[in-house]
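anyone else get weird line breaks when pasting these?? whatever heres mine. first is seq + tokens for prot A
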Amino acid sequence: MASEQAPVEMPATFSKYTKRVMLKIILGRDDGGVGLIGQSVVIGGWVKSSMEIRKQPVTPPPAAPAPQVVSPNDVTCSEVFQSRIPLIRSIMKVFGAGEYRVREKLDAVIRKAPQPSISILQVSDGSCVPSLQVLVNSALANPCQVMPTGTCVLIEGILQQPSVQGKHYVELQAEKILHLGLVDESKYPLSKKRLPLESLRDCSHFRPRTTTVASVMRIHNSLTWATHAFFQDHGFLHVQVPIITSTDSEGFSEKFLVTTLLSKGKKDDQISPTENAGVSVEAIRASIKEKTKKVEELSRTNSNKEALLAAQQDLMKTNELVSQLEARQKAKSGVTIETRKFDFSKDFFTRQTYLTVSGRLHLESQACALGNVYSFGPRFKAEKLESKKSLAETWMVDVEMAFSELEDAMDCANDFLKFVCKRILEGCVEDLQFVLKRIDKSVMERLQFTISSSFERISYAKAIEILRQVAGKKFQSKIELGVSLTEEHESYLVDEIYKKPVIVYNHPKELKPFYVRLNDDGKTVATFDVILPKMGALIRGSQSEERFNVLSSRMKELGLQKQQYEWYLDLCRHGSAKTSGFSLMLEPLVLYATGLNDVKDVVPFARSFGRANN
């Protein structure tokens, strides 16, 4: 007797908290799920596309009719009615009724049962690129409910071989519909096929349901965890730096002001019902005239002092209400926040505070006690410009290392980039294959090249000299010492001259923040930028100034308020150490790994100048 084959167990770790099996567990197998055929599973997701196949009705073979003599008395009422249909239609036409209305009434009398069908759904749950083909019989669910794009389904069924040979290795025959989230097709933004990424920005709450954005989000996730893995593997501590700060970390950045002084007026529950009712000032003024007449009349008669007092109080409150409404209208029409003067000693923090631009200064204080540290969190810049590589709210990796100099920080940045590129090449194969097919055919080659190539290191002065010697190329911006390299200059260096990543170091002190270490020449500072092909500058780093006198002179030279930075100066006063580090915005790194060209397409909810929809 042949031994029975043990059933293939479904891994439970991925569905422990959701009561369903993620499609990645089924479709991500080497056999595409074939080894799981015959198992009963529960899957959940959203319909990406669908089609309906109508079943052909099975008719029994006709039997040989027996000769029969039909008596007029044996004719049924329905047969008589059907034989009279042409006559009824003719009569209705005579009386002006349309053919459609006649047919509609007759069809209502003789109604046919709906033809059975099968809805073939392509269901995705966001865990992988491919979707699972699901067959739903019309007896189980109405096709018009399960077929629209975006419909949410939770289905229990049996995995089986595909009924039609194609790209699928396995499909699900539905047996139970456990949940059905319906969609209004006329209003659902993803009902249209192949929407451009630009239009998806206006419906960021739905766009992860598209295959492209879902793949980008999974790559985004892998880069996040690869970042933590690199620093944890190298002994760094992860620490949090404040989002709200009283310090301008760079000394010259555009910042978001944090204040509660704008809401010092009435709270919502203190506003009178009249204010919320949308009553116009003109209507209240008209009521003031009537109330004034009533007060005058009561004053003349002097018959009821209590009524007079109540009328006077009512008139006084109405006048106050008009004054408040007029003040609010005036504020809305012309007075801007810049024209107001705030007493920040009465604010929540009793001083001016901002959303942080960089975590480097606060992180340095942790490095001077804990050694090598890094932070990963949101940073904010209030720059009023449209850029494809920066956002008003971005997630930034800040790194700081104690007893470290500029060369050490450059080495760390070099190793970090190679590590994260290798991680996503190994862990996001399926998503990168999709990106390769749909977005950028060179993405995997570019990542592999980053891993294998040696980064060229040149000084800022040498970069300027090389660009000046370029013949037959006219740059839009002037190439001269003391001026920042533009994206055009950086791209030419890495794409045309060196054809590999380049690290440019020792920039003029006027181009970098106050806290970076001044070099011996007194003109340049210990800074570096990592520039990648097809990307531009991705990492910016520096060695911090540990000499108190030099740091104080730099702050005075730039006109910075010393009081704001007293806590930072304390690091130089008491047990200073050489530290270096760098900062990296995660979103441009996702651009580099996906081949997209706008950071607004690689974050769940983009915040940029003029855009904060939800």
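and prot B, same format (seq, then tokens)
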Amino acid sequence: MAFCTKLDPSSILTSQNLIKLSNAKISSSSSCSLLNCFPFVLSRNLRLKNHGSSLVVKASSTVTDPEALKVFTVPTKPIEGQKTGTSGLRKKVKVFMEENYLANWIQALFNSLPPEDYENGLLVLGGDGRYFNKEAAQVIIKIAAGNGVGKILVGKEGIMSTPAVSAVIRKRKANGGFIMSASHNPGGPDYDWGIKFNYSSGQPAPESITDKIYGNTLSISEIKMVDIPDVDLSHLGVTNYGKFSVEVVDPVSDYLELMETVFDFSLIRSLLSLSDFRLVFDAMHAVTGAYAEPIFVDKLGASADSILNGVPLEDFGHGHPDPNLTYAKDLVNILYKENGPDFGAASDGDGDRNMILGREFFVTPSDSVAIIAANAQNAIPYFQSGPKGLARSMPTSGALDRVAQKLNLPFYEVPTGWKFFGNLMDAGVLSICGEESFGTGSDHIREKDGIWAVLAWLSILAYRNKDKKLGDRLISVSDVVKEHWATYGRNYFSRYDYEECESEGANKMVEHLRDLISKSKEGDIYGDYVLQFADDFTYTDPVDGSVVSKQGVRFVFTDGSRIICRLSGTGSAGATVRVYIEQYEPDVSKHDMDAQVALKPLIDLALSVSKLKDFTGREKPTVIT
């Protein structure tokens, strides 16, 4: 027998004040006391949110299984704008704190999955430590329990990097996991928050699932939840609620264990022990602050003062946790000062991106993944048999293509979004991959991995210097890069980001470009460049045959130069326009030019062809990489 309670208009449901039920009045043909019908009402003092109309909560009057949790439903309505981008759903924090906003998306996710993918199963929950994560974790836990999940494994304080979530999913054979992060976007009450779901292989949910989630957000009518106390995330251990349990775990241990199987830590330690080698790692007050000391200091012997901004903060110390030349300027200044450190690195909000620097030298992400791939077999034990294959996102420079060609390895070009690498990895044809947006990784997990990239570079440097004696000149980051250019040629590359543009103008710019390419033909002249082809990139997955289209407008010229324009799906407000410019230079004597100088004719052409200023009103980019 079921009973209904109508709640007065003063009662509210928010993500922070999860389901507080008060002033409840029972309406039923049977007589019963409030305590008998709804013991959870008085024991938890739960409230539900309402905007002027009564809400109905249904609860079973009897529980046949003494260990079963009482599940109740919260009526809700669809909320517009919950379509995920390339890396989950991202909005301003205040949007997620609105009535049922987060809860709707989480329930829509469960409505999109086959029950066997989560019922009585294990899910992982972690995040980057940003504002609202702790409150959101309680919402997710209670909705997961309401939908029949058996166990949630959550990082202490709700913290677990995106790469670590992927690693834990794979090690613990979990059904999947939630990642609470807006990645490299700012955090705090006035800034960004995000959520995404990774599947049992540890990879981001494919578009077939995210499309279903979006569809279900448009038709959702109720949210399933349970009445349990908030979980104490500050202490390790297991809390049982009948057949449902929550385990708070160390967010570092499983990930560190995996890293020790991938890399030769003793080799890296020998490099860091050299008195004339200095390392600086900037955690940007983001999630890798929880990993930096255990890995770089405790395990590898770096000095404690080599870690900058090593304490994760909810607002990232009022910073923008995006490891690039603009937002990691403090680290850049340290590496470019006289007699600066030999090696510098930074990672982003959720720990999946990286920036690599040498003394007075910046390594582009496109070059970084190519150099890691070229040196992996010798320097990294995980690849001692050689990589299976290489891949990059379409906008990333062609430097990796040349390594694949020389090493006679399979090569793949995919759309932006790490999920597109996952199928190739699961099929056993891809080992190392990267994106120009500071993402690098391998098939050890199914996410890009900032600390992995740092350890890969330290491994390369350690291997190249392993026979050096005290006082010998060490092979530097710039030495490694310039030797690579001498072998493979240099792909000059730059990216112009125009953040938070008006969406209407940005979309009109893309439509203008699509119209232009529809009329273009091979041999068309663009300034000093001859067009080979122009298109809007379409990708057919070689594993499952799925097709994605409209992934970026590109102009490819006969000399290998490229201009690419696309809108990014990683922001939370407006549109981010990205313009990518690339030119290949085989002549070693021309490898030391500044990229902006070498690319200026092509940059000018890109801005002219796109009419970016006309459509967006922007005079200059927000970020130049």
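btw re prot B: The two ends are 63 Å apart (CA to CA). Residues 393 and 438 are 11 Å apart (CA to CA).
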